[in-house]
């Protein structure tokens, strides 16, 4: 080596060292992410290498090139068509100029993050009949990346590792018993070479768990169940033995539920992996655990050792849940000063309406306060950490109208936290619901199980009452002070079910809306600063990154997910065919988003309603028990899947049976219901849908709609 080349080599070394110090590590091939890089993600603001950007899952970016002063000049840089008309819930991952996103049916795309050019696409070929097991649309929330590989969990329960350069599968493992109605919609997380993944399916009949797989070869390393199994058999661990003491009856025969289906966070200091768990099967505790009990670890936040999966602590937000109050919402780690003392906390805006601040080393409650109106508890007892129940929310004396409902005060739409403002940004909503005991409940294997009276899941027949109900639904972005436990500001939206939040050092908060906009607010005051039309509901978590020192903001947009499946009556803004997109903005961006052409289609006249009132009444209850979760209250389609009231099949008795019982459309996700419904039931359902198509069905009593979601 000559002196000159030595000099150059030294220079190069110095540049690399300086880049490493600045956090801008030189690219070592696609998805070159390792433990050091992920742990110090905060020092690498140009990349977004895991779901919540850092292990703390704050969804906060230190980037400030786009800021409150210049955000008015933000414009579209590029957009990428995802070729889907189903929900888009992905948070893009960006590493060294490459973006990795997912779409419905667990498809993965790698894009040039500067131009949107497609680098590769991977389709795991999920069998479409699995769509029947997915309560809340066939969505996916994103990938994880690690040492040259991209990891996706598929709707049918596989974990697939892809070569980050080509999208070719390196390995694939089945993480669930595929004979059971498990699904996965969450993004995996990677900690020190272990891929962490949970699952969904609590209402359908599964036992939830989190698994850790070796990122190199897919070997199962540990598994932590979230609810106990058959107590006559040995427990997997002491935590399950403890949990079993909080259950009664034969919960395990249908699986118990408790699926950890979305959020995770990790604290490298304590080596704790945190995750939230879902509801039990069925929702109504009286039918699940007849003599009561807390039913651990349903509706809980759990901490386990990330190396071994051993239980460390739990905090159960909703003991004895009967309302589908999953605790799966964003888990955010932060260091706060509370009562003059530095505290390392974990925070959650729970579906149950309370905002929790816990000590993240011990799980002990620091404070909790409702961030939306709450009817079922007057507060959280600071000594026991348990809710103070008011009234009869367990609906023992008749139906209970509840706020929040199963849609939650906040759902999967990710919240963000800005260490700069000290505020948490919560996509919040007010959607009441009614719950009531189904005296005839029996477990329907593989179907939607709530044990709620199906007669209650019906809209008022009076159009004025129906409109009033829709107008009572609210949605807003709340900026919440987690130390003072109070609201700092709010931005009102047209209705519920709006997008996830992103906070940046540019003193901005970004959020999409259900009515087809992507907005930026002043993070301190909530002043609206910028808005772009997206022409479709924009629900996913936004993110930001740099390529060639230029900052971009990205968000997934696309019509779909549970609200539009089930609550079509409350949806104004309907989707357009193939409207799923990744939208990417930059200062001065001047790309134009094609405006969808919304041609009015003449709706066909429905067949005449000729069935007897008794047959229609049977059809109404059967529809609510089996069909409503996808086809909506009162068979009113929300625009995601065909509106049954306008289907030619309702005028074709044989064709209708071919679909409902014969499975003629199973390749579209509409499986056969022959194991649950008789030919007479199918005919009664057809008669009920015809009645709805002819102006609506008025049941003997018209209570408010029950909640159905996640
Ligand atoms: Ca749930």
Explained architecture:
13% of the residues lie in helices and 28% in strands. The chain has nine helices and 37 strands. By secondary structure, it is an alpha+beta fold. Among the domains are: 60-118 and 266-587, Methanol Dehydrogenase, Chain A (8 Propeller); 613-696, Orthogonal Bundle (Cytochrome Bc1 Complex, Chain D, domain 2). The protein has a five-stranded mixed beta sheet, with no helix packed on it. A four-stranded antiparallel beta sheet has the order 2-37-36-35, with no helix packed on it. The chain has a four-stranded antiparallel beta sheet with strand order 3-4-5-6, with no helix packed on it. A hairpin with a 5-residue loop joins strand 17 and strand 18. The chain binds calcium ion (CA).
Features of the shown structure:
710 residues; alpha+beta; Methanol Dehydrogenase, Chain A; Cytochrome Bc1 Complex, Chain D, domain 2; 4-stranded antiparallel β-sheet; 9 helices; 28% strand; binds calcium ion
Give a quick summary of the entry.
Helices cover 13% and strands 28% of the residues. It is built from 9 helices and 37 strands. It starts with a helix and ends in a 17-residue tail after the last helix.
């Amino acid at each position: 080596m000559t002196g000159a080349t030595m000099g150059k080599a030294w220079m190069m070394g110095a540049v690399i060292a300086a880049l490493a110090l600045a956090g801008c590590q030189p690219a070592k091939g696609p998805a070159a992410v390792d433990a050091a890089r992920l742990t110090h993600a905060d020092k690498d603001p140009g990349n977004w290498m895991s779901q919540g950007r850092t292990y703390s899952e704050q969804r906060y970016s230190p980037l400030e090139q786009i800021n409150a002063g210049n955000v008015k000049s933000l414009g579209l840089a590029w957009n990428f068509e995802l070729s889907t008309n189903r929900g888009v819930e992905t948070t893009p991952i960006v590493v060294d100029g490459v973006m990795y996103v997912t779409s419905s049916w667990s498809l993965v795309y790698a894009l040039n993050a500067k131009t949107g050019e497609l680098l590769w696409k991977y389709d795991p070929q999920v069998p479409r009949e699995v769509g029947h097991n997915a309560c809340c649309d066939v969505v996916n929330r994103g990938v994880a990346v690690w040492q040259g590989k991209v990891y996706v969990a598929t709707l049918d329960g596989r974990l697939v590792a892809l070569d980050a350069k080509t999208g070719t599968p390196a390995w694939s493992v089945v993480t669930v018993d595929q004979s059971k109605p498990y699904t996965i919609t969450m993004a995996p997380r990677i900690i020190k070479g272990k891929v962490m993944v949970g699952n969904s399916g609590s209402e359908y009949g599964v036992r939830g768990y989190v698994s850790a797989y070796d990122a190199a070869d897919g070997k199962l390393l540990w598994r932590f169940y979230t609810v106990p199994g058959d107590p006559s058999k040995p427990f997997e661990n002491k935590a399950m033995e403890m949990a079993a003491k909080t259950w009664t009856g034969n919960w395990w025969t249908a699986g118990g539920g408790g699926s950890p289906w979305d959020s995770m966070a990790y604290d490298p200091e304590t080596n704790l992996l945190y995750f939230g768990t879902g509801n039990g099967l069925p929702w109504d505790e009286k039918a699940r655990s007849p003599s009561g009990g807390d039913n651990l670890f349903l509706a809980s936040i759990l901490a386990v050792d990330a190396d071994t999966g051993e239980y460390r602590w739990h905090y159960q937000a909703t003991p004895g849940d009967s309302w589908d109050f999953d605790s799966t919402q964003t888990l955010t780690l932060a260091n706060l000063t509370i009562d003059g003392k530095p505290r390392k906390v974990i925070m959650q805006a729970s579906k149950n309406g309370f905002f929790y601040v816990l000590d993240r080393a011990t799980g002990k409650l620091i404070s909790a306060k409702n961030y939306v109106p709450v009817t079922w508890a007057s507060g959280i007892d600071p000594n026991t950490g348990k809710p103070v129940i008011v009234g009869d929310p367990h609906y023992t004396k008749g139906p209970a109208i509840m706020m929040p409902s199963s849609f939650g005060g906040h759902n999967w739409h990710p919240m963000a936290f800005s260490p700069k403002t000290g505020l948490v940004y919560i996509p919040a909503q007010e959607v009441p619901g009614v719950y009531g005991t189904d005296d005839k409940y029996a477990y329907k294997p593989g179907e939607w199980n709530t044990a709620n009276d199906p007669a209650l899941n019906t809209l008022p027949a009076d159009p004025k009452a129906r409109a009033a109900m829709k107008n009572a639904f609210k949605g807003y972005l709340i900026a919440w002070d987690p130390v003072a436990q109070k609201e700092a500001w709010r931005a009102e939206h047209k209705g519920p079910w709006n997008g996830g939040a992103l906070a940046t050092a540019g003193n901005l908060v970004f959020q999409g809306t259900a009515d087809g906009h992507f907005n930026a607010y002043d993070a301190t005051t909530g002043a609206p600063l910028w808005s772009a039309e997206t022409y479709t509901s924009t629900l996913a978590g936004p993110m930001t990154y740099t390529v060639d020192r230029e900052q971009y903001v990205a968000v997934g947009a696309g019509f779909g997910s549970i609200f539009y499946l089930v609550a079509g009556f409350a949806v104004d803004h309907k989707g357009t065919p193939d409207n799923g997109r990744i939208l990417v903005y930059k200062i001065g961006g001047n790309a134009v988003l094609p405006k969808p052409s919304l041609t009015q289609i003449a709706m066909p006249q429905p067949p005449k309603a000729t069935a007897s009132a008794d047959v229609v009444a049977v059809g109404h209850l059967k529809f609510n028990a089996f069909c409503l979760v996808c086809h909506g209250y009162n068979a009113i389609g929300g625009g995601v899947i065909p509106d049954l009231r306008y289907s030619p099949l309702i005028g074709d008795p044989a064709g209708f049976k071919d679909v409902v019982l014969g499975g003629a459309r199973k390749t579209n996700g509409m499986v056969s219901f022959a194991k649950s419904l008789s030919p007479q039931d199918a005919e009664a359902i057809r008669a009920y849908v015809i009645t709805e198509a002819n102006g609506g069905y008025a049941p003997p009593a018209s209570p408010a709609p029950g909640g159905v979601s996640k």
